[in-house]
Structures are given as structure tokens and as C-alpha cells.
Design a protein that fits this description.
It is built from 1 helix and 16 strands. 2% of the residues lie in helices and 61% in strands. By secondary structure, it is mainly beta.
């Protein structure tokens, strides 16, 4: 992303940055595993983000999962560890009342996740993590349910709970995120996606709607309605627009039904 990139035009809230990512995994299928299990797939991944103009360090992440199972129906289960390093050039509010100061941070978190058959009419997933988070601690847990009664219709709702603690003298703060979605497709070329999220920490509900039209192969036109903030008690601050943490992120809308 160059210095001239306008973050407000999309879902990437950063200018003047470059990212490098890598992934390595093993696809192990020993004979002793049950027939319903496709195999073991431990992996190691990493990413590095630098300032594009100076190549100065901004953030890095390393993820490792020594226990990663894949079933024949595409269900999965993972247990892993995640290391994060970040350089914050300015303080920001994770949620109202919980502040992280500028500086260099390095923290490690334990993660776990599981998901059922994603191709099923009814699908589910769940995940959680615990460990350090910037200058404090964060425990998070969540899940999602989806229903696709027809290839052209998909409903999905997700819920996430976060508990922030040990941020100076601030008491433990718990936030809840509820996010229902509706995706409709007339055909593979015409799709409508809508996404609503309510964040108890900000006491704000946000509604996003986007229409996608594939005029020709690899030629897409998008019409996105302006985001509507509902139940907002105060104006959205700049630090909320720029810094998107795991605690209060608004997820992007993808045009595909799935």
C-alpha cells in the first residue's frame, strides 16, 4: 500500500506498508489413523509487515500448529501457538476504557479451533485463544453457525466474547460481538451480501450492504451502500477507524456465497 492509498475506500486501514507471508505444512496420512480421518496437517506460517517507503518494521506474526486434524468430510480441528510482534507509533484504545500505549510489543498466545463440514447445509465452527495481548491479557472465544437451504441463499451468524485484563489499573472488561449475515445470489455473476455487527463495547451496530456484478470474466463491478451506524452513543473517533484490533473489528464482506 503506497502513501497515496486511501484507507477509507476499502477494508485495509493502513497506508505506506508492504507485507510478506509464507506457509509450510506437512500432509501426513499414517495407516494407524481411523478411516474417517483424512490425515494430520501440522503447519508453520509467518508474515512480516514493513513500512513500504523505509522498510522499517511494523509488525510480524508466526503461527504453528503441531496438532492439526482433517477429516474426510473436510471437518477440522487445530491446536497451536501464535507469536506476535508489533511496533505502535501511537497509543490507541482497544475498547473504551482500555488503552495500549505506543511502543514495541511481543506476546504469545495459545489457540484452538474446530469446524464441521463446510459444504453441509448446516455448518458450524468454533475457536478460542488466550495469552498476552499488547500490555495486558486477552481471552477470547466464539463460534459461528450457517445455513444454506439453497445454493443461492446463505445465512450465517457469529458470536465472539473477549475478556481484557491486566491493562494497568483497568478492571477486566468483557465485550461481546454479534454478527448475522445474509448472502443472496441470482446467479454466479449477480450477488448481494449484507452484514450486521453489534459491538457491546462501543454500543454500536453497523450495517454493510454490497452488490457484486461480474460483467465479464475477471471484470467485477461493486456497488456498496454507505455503512450505517446504529445505536451509536458518540461519534466514531479516528483511533477507532484506523486501529482494528481482534476485539472490535468489523469484518469485510466478500461477494461469494459459501
Amino acid at each position: 500500500m503506497s502513501r497515496g492509498f486511501a484507507p477509507d475506500a476499502g477494508f485495509v486501514a493502513r497506508q505506506d506498508s508492504a507485507q510478506l507471508s509464507s506457509l509450510a505444512f506437512f500432509d501426513m496420512r499414517p495407516r494407524w489413523i481411523p478411516a474417517s480421518v483424512r490425515g494430520l496437517k501440522p503447519y508453520l506460517s509467518g508474515s512480516l509487515v514493513t513500512q513500504a517507503s523505509t522498510l522499517g518494521f511494523l509488525e510480524a506474526q508466526v503461527q504453528a500448529s503441531p496438532l492439526s486434524l482433517r477429516w474426510q468430510n473436510a471437518a477440522s480441528a487445530d491446536i497451536g501457538v501464535e507469536w506476535n510482534g508489533q511496533r505502535l507509533d501511537a497509543p490507541f484504545m482497544l475498547v473504551p476504557g482500555v488503552r495500549s500505549d505506543a511502543g514495541d510489543y511481543a506476546f504469545t498466545r495459545m489457540t484452538a479451533s474446530a469446524a464441521g463440514n463446510p459444504a453441509s447445509a448446516f455448518a458450524w465452527s468454533t475457536s478460542g485463544s488466550i495469552g498476552r495481548y499488547f500490555s495486558g491479557r486477552l481471552a477470547t472465544a466464539g463460534g459461528a453457525l450457517s445455513w444454506s437451504p439453497d445454493p443461492r441463499v446463505a445465512f450465517r451468524t457469529s458470536y465472539t466474547a473477549n475478556a481484557l485484563s491486566s491493562f494497568g489499573n483497568t478492571p477486566t472488561v468483557t465485550t461481546h460481538l454479534l454478527a448475522p449475515e445474509l448472502r443472496l445470489a441470482l446467479n454466479p455473476q449477480l450477488q448481494l451480501a449484507s452484514f450486521y455487527q453489534y459491538n457491546t463495547a462501543a454500543r454500536r451496530g453497523s450495517l454493510n450492504v454490497r452488490f457484486a456484478w461480474e460483467l465479464a470474466p475477471l471484470s467485477l463491478r461493486y456497488h456498496r451502500c454507505p455503512r450505517v451506524d446504529l445505536h451509536r452513543t458518540e461519534p466514531l473517533r479516528r483511533d477507532e477507524r484506523v486501529h482494528r484490533s481482534d476485539v472490535g473489528d468489523t469484518h469485510p464482506i466478500e461477494p461469494e456465497i459459501g
